[in-house]
Amino acid sequence: MCLAIAIYITGYSFELKADNIEQIKFFLKMEYFGAPFMSAFWMIFAYKFHFKKAASLKITIMIMVIPFLTLFFNVTNEYHKLIYTNVSAFEFEGYLLAKLSGGPWYFVNIAYAYLVQLFGMSVFFGAWRKNGYKFGTQAYWMFFGSIWPMSVNMIYIAGLSPLNLDLTPFGLSLSAIFFYVALFRYDFLELKEIVRDVTFSEINEGIIVIDDKNRLIDFNKSAKNIFAWLDLKRIGTDVSIFKECQYILKQKTDQFEMEILNKGTQKYYEIRTSVLNENNNNVGRVYFIQDISRQKEMIQALNNMASYDFQTQIYNRRGLMEEAEKELQRSRRLGHYISILMIDIDHFKLINDKHGHLAGDEVLKVLAKACKDRIRRTDILGRYGGEEFLIILPEANKEDAFRVAKDIQEYIANTELVFKDEIIKITISIGIETVIINDENFSVNELINNADMALYQAKNNGRNQISFSA
After folding, report:
1. How far is Cα 36 from Cα 109, in angstroms, rounded to an integer?
2. Fewer CB within 10 Å, N or C, the chain?
3. What is the pLDDT of residues 362-381, one digit of tens each?
């Protein structure tokens, strides 16, 4: 309701600042994204207070039909004139003010708003009467807060407001003061049990209550959507018979994560536990279950951004160095060979200069795919920088490394990349370093540097060559 009021008042404030009739018409339409719904939400609020329960879906739809029709008719008003038969403007002391002539549906909307306001006023008047017409009670503040919007609107409808200004926003501001006092000073929302019930049922967070003997006491709709076995027929059943509950019950911490297959999709949930005590005795536990799958995906995406090259979808330099360090330590521990291939695209700058940087990007992607298709799953591929690629081959001796390098080199040399109807031929130079690491001080940087020196030698030998480090 507050959001609807805010939209309406914001639209009206812009209307008052409009410079021409077209702006007035635009902001008039904006106002109707809030104005008709203020009454509807007020009705739902008053209904909930009066009947001590939320309105059913059927009743809610009935309440919302007229506001949605009003919004639709306002947006399309120029075609049928049901809301306003005429929208014009006049100038007053430098301000352009709207002059509106209401159509038939305009008065339907007004009548609906008045009926709804009267319902709300009667509800809170009845509550005030039950309190013996005492001043300063919650019902007093709510009742007198509800009379202002309709009162000032009647002045506007009757044509008695100065310069034909819509006084409703000012009435809403007065209502807001009364409601603020009722809500925060007098704790108007004191229907604690009802609020608990509604919150328990409608909250997005799953909630499961069990007693000290692990018997199911209660659960909400969100929990049912997570665990298919939750059913009202199982109230009083020992939940430890279910595999997922066995995992939950054996957790020793108050907060933990759990991976669950939910409707064919792997989901991640954070589960918090709260112990229920009565007379210093543990009588049960409440489990609060929150879906954190989206957060997990975002974290994974951020990790990928930090470790992967955007263009080629392989490791970037940071990710490459982290993986290289792991493989170096493993190779040192096991006493196995490790080989590194440093690959550079020959005359890459000329490709960019002649065909453009987009062509250069395609060349990088072609090389990345060629390397990925010709290495083992245990090998590591990354973009070291610019047009340089690095491949780490765990447990590969010189012959193994040369075979992989030769395969990639020949494939690239025989590949014709077509870009914008032009054929681009490319070659690569490769430097290889193969070692068994015995020295504890031997580092990844030394390994890469040796491969880089071999690459430099391959370039000096005329490019499209493969060289080993000295």
Report:
1. 7
2. C
3. 999 999 999 999 999 999 99
